[in-house]
Amino acid sequence: MTPEPNPSPSPISAASQGLASCHVCGKVSPVTVGHCPRCDTPLHLRKPQSLERTWAFLIAAVILYIPANTMPIMTVQGIGGAEKNTILSGVVRFWEMKSYPVAIVIFTASVLIPLLKVIALVWLCLAARGRSQTAPRSLSRLYHITELLGRWSMVDVFVVAILVCLVQLGAIMTITPGPAALCFSAVVILTMFSAMSFDPRLIWDRHHEKPNPSSSLPSLPTNE
Ligand SMILES: [Zn+2]
């Protein structure tokens, strides 16, 4: 009796064949060459110290998230004197002024998205270390959403810029950015670096490393 053919053969990774894709131009070459033949970038099977870098940027972002939310992000100079607002008190103020769309945009872009990004990256790092049972396909999707949000985080910077212009035009009150604006920009940039440092292939490596009778893939070197 002939054995049943495996309906879904395990995919063979490039890394298991000693092939590395260049981090800069994407050209696939044998890792033994050392440098990309096209652009001379050092070749690695996986981004070197990917998780360590991701954690470092993430921890820095979390630390700066505290002053970004507790220090004043803007000073509103009106007829009744100067008023300092944090992100949340600003949201409350816009809500009270019945500027609901502005309040919702600021809350989503400045509080919710950075927080969700940090949670997603922590989850991905834990999964790459084998601390989560989530399916690799879902984790991959989570990573792509996080990366996409990284690009859209620049919305926050535009929101602040547009807001300042709009209010200055009104000539009734002036808004000047406070120290939290700087911390907040740093949070956005650090979470972007964190997402860029993460190597999503680590999730699949972890998946293939699991003892699986139908697969006979060699275990992969995770670094250089
Ligand atoms: Zn290259």
From TrEMBL:
Listed name of the protein: Paraquat-inducible membrane protein A
Family annotation (InterPro entries): PqiA-like, PqiA-PqiB_transport
Location relative to the cell: Cell inner membrane
Keywords, alphabetical: Cell inner membrane, Cell membrane, Membrane, Transmembrane, Transmembrane helix
Chief location category: membrane
Transmembrane segments: 55-80, 100-127, 148-173, 179-198
Pfam families per record: PqiA
PANTHER family in the cross-refs: INTERMEMBRANE TRANSPORT PROTEIN PQIA, INTERMEMBRANE TRANSPORT PROTEIN PQIB-RELATED
One CC-aspect GO term: plasma membrane
